[in-house]
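User: Show me a protein chain along with its predicted structure.
Assistant: Here is one chain, sequence first, then structure tokens.
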Amino acid sequence: MPATTLAWLRHSLRLRDNPALVDAAEHGAVVPMFVWAPDEEGDWPPGDAAQWWLHHALQDLDERLRERGSRLILRSGPTADALRTVADAVGADRVVWNRRYEPPLARRDAEVKEALEDSGLETAVFESQILHDPEAVETTSGGSYHVFTPFWKKVRSENLLRTGPPLSVPPLTSPETWPSSEPLDALGLSAAANGASDWADGLQASWTPTVAGAHERLDHTLEHVVADYDTTRDRPDRDGTTRLSPFFHHGHLSPRQVWHRVETWADDTGRHDDARPLLRQVVFREFAYHWLYHYPDTPAETYRDKFRDFPWRDDAEALARWKRGQTGYPIVDAGMRQLAETGWMHNRVRMIVASFLTKDLMIHWRHGARWFWDRLVDADLASNTFNWQWTAGCGADAQPFFRIFNPVSQSERHDPDGAYIRRFVPELADLPDDALHAPWNESEARIGAFGVTLGETYPRPMVDHGEARETALDAYETVK
């Protein structure tokens, strides 16, 4: 009987540049396997939007494996038990996987490794999720980085990123007998299983959650986005961002694949200056993982101690209106409705809505982070945690708390023609540009002529931004 290896696939749901899969293929027959065990992911099991994506990603992975004479074996957890059971069924002597850095998953993986080795199975773990080794990137004093720019300079100047050519798809040898597999629908990941079929229509219209969809978006980025990325990425009314984040998160693309493609494009076109802002954003994702690795309590705990005593407000009604996109501030509501409809939100608008929640409403950043986790198709624990604490002013490399986004001026600057607001807040679509960003500043007669009645067809502002800003700053003085 030939040697057989289980390739435990999690968020590396691709065949190319998959080091665990390559290693498994080099040792003989390969049994690709996915285990659904959300209870093992602590307080952060995949949310509804991520589950919808995962359902389609697993379907896509199985189809691509079958094109190569292989298949994907699906099992429910506990993970160690599922892996041992399948290993016994096929006579496997090895289990390999790609490393995860999220704290609950890192702990789970260590426990699985110990359990498998206690059962006599050989294990091997590989790097795929990020480009840098968090232990190897240190400040001159030997500690972790707290500010992004020095981190960026360090990893670039000392070549600390794994940016070589991506690995090719390995030839896959099948075992003599395939083990049984649970039906994909039995995992309960689909929108129908979660009772969210109507909500999933918007996701389906917005995304192609496959490896082919990932490469199509990467091609589009290089053809239409990267050249103007540094100047248009703050415009939610334009297709000026990569929209690659969910493909990163679910492993349709590895960061090394994206890095290599962008650098190749820059070499071919001679436009290295145009490529640099995009590569910098890839490294910003790395920085979020660097921070999460060194401060694993930050998904639940505020990084800066003084903010643990900040007088956050407990206002369930205000939080619910923010979630529904009914705050009365058009740019905030557009962002929250884009999230509800598409499972994604433009990055500039993420900062606007986060500032509004934490500073205008003074609601704890954890409530926003949890809502994003459930509703984003790209819900990534490192990035979600880092960016929410950044906006709230309490994280590493945080914006100062007193930098409070004005939702009206942000709207006027980044959605000047109102196309984004009109797309996601259609009840305001007929308003002229000069009335769209702050309709409460207009007379009832003027906006009424365009079918808008505040308090009826569209809500009045929840708070006065100027007054809310002063209240937030006063609160900050108590912990400053």
